[in-house]
């Protein structure tokens, strides 16, 4: 029995990328967009807002911080939509709230992601305590690409 290569059936169909506005996450987004374009994959972009980041702030300061966080997400959404239209990538944007690891795993399962792409953590303590990327790799559900 011989196997024939079927054009257009190999490679990932759905790629999920987590972005949070940091330079490494934006690099991950650019990498994921290029990969999605070349592979003709659907790109799912997720921004996870962490409500715990606003705990302990004065009520007025927390409201301002939440508004700034939402504005960042809306700017990222606009970039994803415009970039998808310009390049022909089928891209969707999700703004969710909660723990980044939990929400990325949940959404990757929900969309049946074939791969997850994230930026490397720039926090020094994550080299010892573990980062989001390391936790995703240890989950072992999909290939994880970590972009520096």
UniProtKB/TrEMBL annotation:
SUPFAM superfamilies found in the cross-reference section? Adenine nucleotide alpha hydrolases-like
| A Pfam short name | Usp
Q: Using the record's annotation, list all stretches that form the UspA domain.
A: 14-148
Q: What InterPro entries does UniProt report for this protein, alphabetically? A: Rossmann-like_a/b/a_fold, UspA
The superkingdom of the source organism is: Bacteria
- CDD domains linked to this entry: USP-like
By sequence similarity, the record places it as follows: Belongs to the universal stress protein A family.
For this entry, the protein name equals Universal stress protein A
